[in-house]
Amino acid sequence: MNIVDSLRRGEFLVYLVVLFITSLLLMFSMYLAFYRIYDLILALQQPEILATAIYNALSDVFLVIVFVELIDTFITYIEQKRIVVYKIIDVALVALARELFIYLAPVNKEFSFEKALAIIIATLVIGVIEYLQRRIIPTERRRR
């Protein structure tokens, strides 16, 4: 048996396990998102905690989006047998946007200007990479 074929099979199995784990995490994050939306509905009668409830719900919805994008990246890799860079950039951009949204929230008590600046710079760098990637790769090659 060829060693490269064995390594490819092992890699495929590892990706299936990672896909399964990511799917479980997606289910947990969806549970959290629905739970936070329930908390948000309950917070409508309490204006003092409404802002925190909104940010918590949006944070969990962003987390669901990150997991959906990550699963899409794994599925694309399994289908095409190659890493699609723009999908990884999309996941990174959504994850950084979530972090930026959470960290810059007015309800964040642990705000640090340096950390906020680092998150903003990282988001801008990934955004520029995304822009350049979309300009270089023709649209028809990015479609599934």
TrEMBL record:
Phosphoprotein keyword on record: no
Keyword Acyltransferase: no
Chain segments annotated as transmembrane: 12-37, 49-71, 83-104, 116-133
Record membrane topology: Multi-pass membrane protein
Subcellular localization, as worded in the UniProt entry: Cell membrane
Keyword terms: Cell membrane, Membrane, Transmembrane, Transmembrane helix
Pfam families noted in UniProt: PsiE (PF06146)
GO cellular component: a single term: plasma membrane
InterPro entries membership: P_starv_induced_PsiE-like (IPR020948)
Major subcellular location class: membrane
Protein name: Phosphate-starvation-inducible E
Organism: Pyrobaculum aerophilum
